Every structure is written in structure tokens, then in C-alpha cells.
Amino acid sequence: NLHLKFTSSTGSAAALQESDTVFTQYREVGVFLWRGFTLDDVMNQCFSTHKDNTKGRQMPIHYSAREHNIQCVSSTLATQVPNAVGYAYSNKLKNKKSVTVAYFGEGAASEGDVHAAMNMAAVLCCPTLFICRNNGYAISTSTKDQYFGDGIAARGAGYGIRTVRVDGNDLFAVYQAVTAARELALSESCPVLLELMTYRVGHHSTSDDSTAYRSIDEVNYWNTRDSPVGRLGHYLVQQKLWSDEEEQSFTKECRKEIMGAFNQAENTPKPSPYLVFDDVYDTMTSQLGEQRRSLEEHLEEYGENYNLDEYDMK
User: Mean pLDDT, to the nearest integer, of 230-251?
Assistant: First the structure.
């Protein structure tokens, strides 16, 4: 799934400003990395180490980066979209010169949250960018089984929202479209819908076998003939800005860096079990305090029966 993340995430993120607040789904790791979230941050979250800024309470790939102005990822499809509109409306009332961005897929676009959010954004004239990456499949459901129309873009007109459909495999096209959409949203205080047409080459997840619902030939076409990474690579080589030798060296370097972060996080202690009592309320209640003391007494007496050496017990 690197391909669809590459252009839709990186190309759009590059067109935004740090003051723009982003609400992602779980395929926008490129946005996090572009804004300064590190590979160590990614791995610590996925392995739920004590260095994870969500304290091991989230599912893997559900990142959060307040310091980079990115809201926490939510598992439930499309809940981030109305939240983004509400945030944009708040910024509008405060006269803040920034946009709010909501990322979602064409499958999530079938959720009622998206329709309510687009209507609210249009009626209240909220400077919101709705970025929909249409990758052809919602898990195993192809677009022809999701909707009768030709995509998500047509829905924007129904709500009176300025809309543009973009070749989501063209990094430069995505960057230019999002740049123009951001300027329009700010200058006219209005929402803009962008549909990025791309393709999910990989399986939906590690538990998915996409060969059960699509052909190998279909995947090979997109992986070789219309790959966003390949297209950009060919362009850079033609412009004499890149070479096959540099590509091989860079790929090796990236793999080494990724596996280094992977191995380090895998061997980093988990968060303290006592953290489960924190952040439930602004101030810990007497009931929670009593439960924490009960856990402390239990672990003091029976701790040898648990793998506490794998946890940060400081």
C-alpha cells in the first residue's frame, strides 16, 4: 500500500502549512512523516512501547501527533470527517487563517458522517479540504459494488462544494491541486472536495488475500504501468536528477533505517501498567486511587508470575 500513500499523502502534505490541522484515517502515515513524525515514533506506537506518545492505548498505526498539528487516528470509519468540519468552523469564528483537512477513502465516503460533514461545511462556509483517496477497493468491495456513479467527485456538486478530481498517482498533480484548493478555501472561506484516483496494490491488511476478489494481472498492471513511485522515478531519471545506482543505494539505506527502528522498538519495554489509571479524569478520583493501590499490592505479592521485566516499571 506504499504506492497510494506516497502520492496522496506526501503530495498533499507538501501543499499544506504547519498551521493547517489534519484529521487522517489510517493510510496517511506519509502525512505524519512529512510533518516530522519519525520512524522511531511510528515503531514505538506500533509496538506500544513506553516511548509511545499514546501510552500504548491505541491500536497499531493509530498515530497521534499534537506537536505536528495532526489529530489522533480513529478506527471507526469517517468519524474524523465531521470532527474536521467542526474544527474548521471553530477556527473560522476565531478568524484563524488556516484550513482543516479531512482524509478518507471512497469506502468511508458511504458513511453518513461524510454526507453530514460536507453539508455542514457547505452551509457554514467552513475552510475545509475533503481529500478522498479512491483506491478502487473498500477492503474486498470494488467501486462498482459501492456506488452506481463514476466516483465521489459528483457528490460535491450536490452540496454546492467546489470539487476537483485528480490523478492520484501523479505527485505533482496532487501537490498543485491541493495548493490551489487550499488557496481557494482560505480566500473564499469555503470547503473543497478533492478526489484522488489511485489504486491499492497491496492487500487490505495482513489478514486479507486480495487474489480472492481480483486478478494478478490487474494488480501487475497498476504495479508496473501506473505506479506512482515508478512514474516519479522515470521522470527524475529522464531529468538526470536520479539514477538506477542511486535508487539501489537509497532503497538499501531506507531498508536499513526501517529495520533498525523496528528492532529497537521491538526490544523496548512496554508502558507501565499503572498508566491505565492516568488520564481517565483530570484529577485521579479516590476510587481510581484505591484501584491503583490494589494493583500495586497485587504485583508486589504476585509479581513473579508476570513478565514485568518487559514493562517500564519506573
Answer: 94
